[in-house]
């Protein structure tokens, strides 16, 4: 918008002018000489304030100047005021309200009154608009920079009592003088006063309010127009005072512009055209029509509405002014040759721009874009009909300017939805036009779109300017008058120079720098595109800009602009060859002019490719690229794959998918020249093939050798021999993933590397494989190294299984069915080292130390230097020890919670066909588990010391529990009598040194007997020899318990018994427990464990006895509940000689009732008669049991069915049988039947109750 007159497109902000303060940039009205003679001088007679407080206040106010604030309504709800603030020290000039009469003018009659008008009105002869002009930028500038809405005067309020009255009177006199001058000027500028207290006498500030009232009344000021700044205010307080003052004055300022708008509407409503001061008399001049006056009044109304931020009102008034201006009553009547024509076009542009600004302010973005397009089409139609048409450079210049205006408006609107951070390229339509079908160009795009449009129109302007005939390009002084007149009516010169200035003849003048204008717009567009990630458009614009810079021969700028784009150009991978070619030639010219040797070489290397069109008469010779180029040192260039389109292509192929370490693999390397036919051959210095995995780099050096190669057409086949050496600094560094920058083995060969255009070099290679794993061919680096330069081109291989062509000869190929031709799986070298276990068992047992023996045998033809790695993997593996052949023992370490490892145990050299033995020792393992034992022997052969060979053996170590057991705890009757609570010997002793925890403690509580029956089984896979079975009882402070083995199947001499797998053995233990005191009543927990001592059967060594401890579930003994136990004994009657061998069998059944509680209990004992036996004893009786006592009832049973058993086959006589006595014990208090428990041998609990064993006659 800089092409338009200054100030005509500025945002309308209320104008506030300060008077009476010192400033670094004093206000200057810049009135013309004619107006300055009539201007009204407003001057303050008091000195200007220069205190720190005054400067701080002015600085804060000027920082709040809203002249350059964004033209949007986002902050209007929070912003309290908007001012355009300027500062005058002591005086200012106001333009005259009325213009003077012209010199020598005489009224037509002495009685007629001459009406004077504003010097900015078309009614005044001094105005450039006289007599039929509409409005110009002078009127806009009048209200923006000349006539303030608020005149803010600053004075010092003296606190000295002796001078206060005098100073107050001076302030009143000065303010009244300024008011009188403002009234004399005829303007309605509001006057406000700021008093800054000097603060020299704080005590005199008590009556300051009274002084302020006197000053206000003496100056006839409103209460809102007088402000006091107290002395010694902090910066925060000063800012608060300034905020309150500006907020108050803003309301006054809005009222000022509201009055001006009301006055403009009042004039328009009169409906008549005012008469000029002096009627026009020259030629056919006429005054401004009523329609023209309506345009003027509508424009004023809209401008004053903008000052008040009433954008809707301003938009309506601007639209009325626009339509009236382009109507048949105004602009249609102005001839195109008249200066008023361009003035009307300028006014139409200004109104249209202000309409767009109002729409952007209101957030109507699509409407703003459509309004821009509407004005363009409207003016184009108008110029085609009434002007000089749109096919000339003047119209193209206007279109470029109009596009740039839209970009500037979007910049000033500062739309957050269109900011680069939002990522949007254009804004969606607003809701008011959502239902309409909008064209893409009717949406509001970002600034880059408009800048690029302006650049294109500028290019059109240049193209049309170059079509101007030479006769029209000569200056008027050198052309006939007829040609000058013809040129004036042929070309549209609205806001652009005449043809002789637009595009002058060479040697006459500079003319318009079209290229500079185009580059400026393109650079701005490129910046916007890059901010929003539009890299393609940015690249396209950069290329257009480079063309313009090239035409101007600004080669350094061309390189700066194109080099970043050229280096990382996306068009190469996408195949946009014409774009790349154009950029290459343009950048090559710039590199040649600027002596950029490396850039020049890289471009020439790319232009050698047949992908580009061949330029006629151009010598494609890379060796001559640096002729006439000055270089400080020899260029050394490295070109990445894909960075350029290389004239050399390469491919690689493994013949086999797999190989073995220690062997060789056959492969082919193919290098093809894609250079232009007729170009010089490429003399390659070396070719380097890079691999990832266990294959070293292959380097082929150029050497002129005897031509033993096979040739057929353009195919040249060579078979090369490779030798191994260490990599050096002269090798090109690989950029592949497999390169780690360290020195490694390099395979070197020599070949003829001359590459004419179109030729294919095929190399048969045989590469030795050293390490197992996956290898992959990554890339090849071709190098050209001569006296002038060194160039390295990296080419990455591409997988293409459909074109796996293997050259059998130069004239024959075959297809290799290889899915991944660039990959090779290298299998490990088959090891001949054997690892065997000696005496390995299927199962090992817990609680047993494990010793394992392994034999390692060398089956290689030569000796092997070996080392051993042992890993034990499982759940919480224990550490182990390995005995090496050298006599050294090494212990493993825990790497993780599930792994124990011994690494790098040196075994030394093992001779061919020899073996050695190692032993591995594991400590006893407590629980069943499964472990994986891995032995890995890594060895090296003298014939290939760089290749490790490994043999791995994995063994499954199963550790199981050799025994499992079940347990029964049966009650028994303790043979000793129970202690009595009435016996003083059983009273608990006083606490003393002999406590239950000491060995000398003697328990005196209740005693009970139990029988622990254990049934244990062997779960081993082989027979085990059990030497001892025992019970371990955990000590308790509540009782003392002992265990005695009463029944087992082990020999007494300790030699043990052989237990077969899956067989069950039984052992019984008599337990005797006695409480510490009689005071203990509750149940007591009994913790025990079964201990089995055993050895393996085949060892026979009783010294290596293993102990397996099986925990027994916890039992509770004692208790307060009564317990009924039955015991039985046998007697025979009738044969005195041998009482035990004949006679009648009498069974003595004793029922014992134990009362361990502290209560007196009564029980009823009854015996029911039975057909199976006869009995003697109480059939029904009552038994009273004292606390902590027990009583017994005895029955004698005589079985009655012995004869029946004898008659039935004698079976019962030999084995015996069971009888069921009907014995019942009932607690008489609780009426609860107590269970009678077997208390010894010969009794059991059946389904119907207690059963008694009757032995046979021979038992």
Characterise this structure.
With 1259 residues, the chain is of the alpha+beta class. Among the domains are: 15-69 and 78-95 and 147-270, Rossmann fold, CATH 3.40.50; 630-820, no CATH class; 833-960, Immunoglobulin-like; 963-989 and 1001-1117, Immunoglobulin-like (Sandwich), CATH 2.60.40; 1123-1255, Immunoglobulin-like, CATH 2.60.40.10. It has 22 helices and 56 strands. Strands 8, 10, 13, 14, 17, 18, 21, 22 and 25 form a nine-stranded mixed sheet that branches. α8 (311-325) runs antiparallel to α9 (339-361) and α11 (393-413) packs antiparallel against α12 (447-465). The longest helix has 34 residues, at 235-268. It is flat, with a radius of gyration of 59 Å. InterPro entries: Gryzun, TPC11. This is Trafficking protein particle complex subunit 11 domain-containing protein. Residues 638-1255 form the Gryzun putative trafficking through Golgi domain. Residues 267-286 are annotated as: Disordered.
Short structural description:
This is Trafficking protein particle complex subunit 11 domain-containing protein. Residues 267-286 are annotated as: Disordered. The protein is of the alpha+beta class.
Low-confidence stretches: 734-743, 990-999, 1136-1141, 1203-1213
CATH architecture label name of the domain at 15-69 and 78-95 and 147-270: 3-Layer(aba) Sandwich
Number of helices: 22
Beta-strand segment tally:
56
Outline type: flat
Helix content percent band: 25-40%
CATH C-level category of the domain at 15-69 and 78-95 and 147-270: Alpha Beta
Fraction in beta strands: 25-35%
Largest sheet: 9 strands, mixed
Query: Average pLDDT across residues?
Result: 86
- Overall SS class: alpha+beta
Rg from Cα: 59 Å
Q: Give the termini distance in whole angstroms.
A: 134 Å
As for the CATH topology of the domain at 15-69 and 78-95 and 147-270, it is: Rossmann fold
